[in-house]
Amino acid sequence: MFFAMNRFQVRLGHEEEFEEVWKSRDSRLKDVPGFVEFNLLRGPSNDTYTLFASHTLWASRADFEAWTKSQAFRDAHRSAGEHRHMYLDGPHFEGFDSVHHIK
Amino acid sequence: MFFAMNRFQVRLGHEEEFEEVWKSRDSRLKDVPGFVEFNLLRGPSNDTYTLFASHTLWASRADFEAWTKSQAFRDAHRSAGEHRHMYLDGPHFEGFDSVHHIK
């Protein structure tokens, strides 16, 4: 399993707007080979921002990388530039391999 | 759903030792009310460390908080101090609520 995360520092007061962008996006992830699950995660706030993380689980790193080169990826990110005013910092991408699993 | 993450900067060369600590720990998480799933995640390396994240999914934040006050939690973390030489920095805890889910 491969975990693809992006961390965003969202300006205070823009949290609901940020969430709405993700909820209204037609990502078509469900149709992408190797896609397992997606969560938009809202984390702690401090004096200047609220931490968010997008969190996507893939069957393999290769599946994730194939998606980043696809038309579906380009379509899903086409309007990303319109949302920059909401971020203080990010997105910062981090990819992780699961090395131990309990379920 | 509540995601509890801890991020660790593990010194280069200590990655396998760090993974072994987690694999050999008898966490008894499976028996804890509200526990859903655990993954130890190995992320990118730079010149000084490899990023790891422990990643536990709970039915609710209240379930997670109840676990942190339990004997099972104290038992699972009893020997944490023995492993400090492996870390450059961390653990840094971050708790997240899922605000959007695709599966």
Question: How would you sum up this structure, described in words?
Answer:
Two copies of one chain form a homodimer. The first copy, chain A, contains three helices and four strands. With 103 residues, chain A is of the alpha+beta class. Chain A has one domain (2-97): Alpha-Beta Plaits. Chain A has a four-stranded antiparallel β-sheet with strand order 2-3-1-4. β2 (35-45) of chain A pairs antiparallel with β4 of chain B.
Instruction: Characterize the biggest β-sheet of chain A.
Output: 4 strands, antiparallel
Low-confidence stretches of chain A: none
Termini distance of chain A?
14 Å
Helix content bin of chain A: 10-25%
Q: What is the CATH top level name of chain A?
A: Alpha Beta
Rg calc of chain A:
14 Å
The CATH topology annotation of chain A reads as Alpha-Beta Plaits
In terms of quaternary structure, the protein is homodimer
Structural class estimated from helices and strands of chain A: alpha+beta
Total discrete domains of chain A: 1
Q: How many H/I helices of chain A?
A: 3
- Describe the strand arrangement of the main beta sheet of chain A, using strand numbers: 2-3-1-4
Average of pLDDT of chain A: 92
Shape of chain A: globular
Identify the most extensive interface between protein chains: A-B, 30 and 30 residues
Strand content of chain A: over 45%
- SSE order of chain A in H/E notation? EHEEHHE
Strands of chain A, total number: 4
CATH architecture of chain A: 2-Layer Sandwich
